[in-house]
Amino acid sequence: MEKCKTIAQANNFIVLDKYDYKESTEKGYQTEAELEKELISDLQNQGYEYLQDVSEPKALLSNARKQIEKLNEVVFTDNEWERFVTEYLDKPNDTLVDKTKKIQEDYVKDFIFDNNELKNIYLVDKKQIARNKVQVISQFEQSGTHKNRYDVTILVNGLPLVQIELKRRGVPISEAFNQIHRYSKESFNSEHSLYKYVQIFVISNGTDTRYFANTLKREANSFDFTMNWADAKNNLVKDLKYFTATFFQKNTLLSILLTYSVFNVDNELLIMRPYQIAATERILWKIQCSHNSNIISCPEAGGYIWHATGSGKTLTSFKTARLATQLDFIDKVFFVVDRKDLDYQTMKEYQRFSPDSVNGSNSTAELKRNIDKDDNKIIVTTIQKLHRLLSSSDKLPIYEKQVVFIFDEAHRSQFGEEQRLIQKKFKKYYQFGFTGTPIFKENALSTGKTTASVFGAKLHSYVITNAIRDEKVLKFKIDYNDTRPKFKSEETETDEKKITAAEDKKAFLHPERITAISKYILNNFNSKTHRNVFGQKGFNAMFAVSSVEAAKCYYEELTKLQKDNNKPLKIATIFSFVANEEQTAIGDIKEETFEPTALNTSAKEFLEKAIGDYNAMFGTNYSVDSESF
What we know:
Oligomer: single chain
Strand order of the largest sheet: 1-4-5-6-7-8
Number of helices: 21
Distance between the termini: 57 Å
């Protein structure tokens, strides 16, 4: 462990463990021009080349030629360059999506020179990112439906990949955002515009600086999706001076552009947030560190990530799994998710990255075949299927190889037999868990097992208070009430077995308890949702319960209690009535099978009644049958 610690102190993380800075460097009034001049000077001091004479499209393209030639150690003739531009670099009718794909995925072009020599021409070097040339230009002019002049642009190998818009101190930063939105409509995406290559926008008014991805879905690209940079302790880096020193440090910016971005199946570019990058970096470091120290197959070789629910854990774990496959000593990466959490979007992302990575079949033989494929380094599976495989297969070649396990949701359910089988079967593994609700000693129940004792030490945290501050999750308020003293012992129980027993005895579904809770909801709904403030009438609330039976009970009780109310709250219920219904939208990926005891016909009948109530309320004609549902 001491050896690991020493390696950690050499720390080349792009998200710094801690960045010491003052809240603001403002020394007085500063115009937008002065802010821009200072930014360019700081970038030059960090190794950026400033091109004062590149201010229009022709000069931009000419510089791009020089940088692409230099990166690839080739020299184009004028005829070859013209073909390269029209066939690939600036192909007619290229969209923003096409050019984004050329940076994120298709950044190598097989080009035939005039002498019939075939060479790979790279736009960017993703393996040796220090080889990529960074330059800065300012006040670039371009016309579309209108002529615009852009503040500061960062070029990578001559291509504009980062656009910075500035406002003087004191002006709302949202004005810079609105300006980018206007430029996107008026000139950024005009015909033959290399600015379609822009991956990241940065906006700043000096005291607040944010970044966001250039995505085609402009309606989703609202100001709410802008992000501040931060250190690993989640301290925000807002001042432009310090943002430049950290985010625009050459290795950091190139890593964000070329490593910590995800171009997803919906053709959206996602730029990872600092806490997501920090978590990914620290897991990759831990794998490398444990491997070098020969510390494997134990909690000391792994760790867990505590990230708040709703903050993007799946994207982080997805990126981590992908990058772990690039470690030359790792044979396989297992991305393990609970059956109920393996959503369609996640499956599509992995299928795109590795066509054979996801297997929806219930057959462990099919899972074995996927594991045996040498060219398939990533395996996406459910906890349930992995358990069946480990239980039924004593000797598999994979047991002797170096593997990484990444659990998307590290729940208590994975602490028992699942862990025993992994420890027994696999000889060389590194294990990591993502969770929004870690188990500590005080809530470890009778087993005594904690998230740290199973997965290893905490490597990074981004907790609910951080997420609320950053407005990445909704704010919430917790109220406790004691309207049901009769059931207090069951409600305050912490022993898992006793809680289960109370559920089995229907203590939580006792009619008196259902009635008391339903009355409390109806009596307090208006005040708790602020429904009567400023004439608001559209507030909704979601009531989460433990089972379909509970949903049925509360639906009936709430409906009954409002029977004679002139203005009743509209109540609807949502649940599935067939456990293994056909999931045709998934296409070739068959849905995981479920135990047939989960829901019975009465659930279907009840849902039919509830949909009938809905139809009467809204004048619709829905039903549970597959065609009209």
